[in-house]
UniProtKB/TrEMBL annotation:
This is Dehydrogenase E1 component domain-containing protein. Gene3D superfamilies: 3.40.50.970. Keywords: Oxidoreductase. The lineage of its organism: Eukaryota, Viridiplantae, Streptophyta, Embryophyta, Tracheophyta. GO terms for molecular function: oxidoreductase activity, acting on the aldehyde or oxo group of donors, disulfide as acceptor. The keyword Magnesium does not apply. It comes from the Eukaryota. It comes from Fraxinus pennsylvanica. Residues 21-65 form the Dehydrogenase E1 component domain.
Amino acid sequence: MLFELLCSIVGLVTKPLSLVKERDPVERIRKLVLSHDLATEKELKDIEKEVRKEVDEAIAQAKITQHKWAGPFMQPVDVVGLGLHDDYEEKRRKEEEAEM
């Protein structure tokens, strides 16, 4: 999907991913982008690093959410509705009053 998106943005490849005969389509796009001076090697490495980070985070999130007890922890908490809101200034004021 990333390959097809990059191809459509760059406009270098008109074939869909399923028709590409290359073994490594990512490397093919990398070479095309570099040969057309659309990005530098450093920019491509930065993009790859960012994508890997996002993928790693998605994998970690997927693993966490599959745990049998994860369900209740995956729902947002109505902090205000439950009276759990944290007003640090109010807490500090109450603590100072209690000390006096």
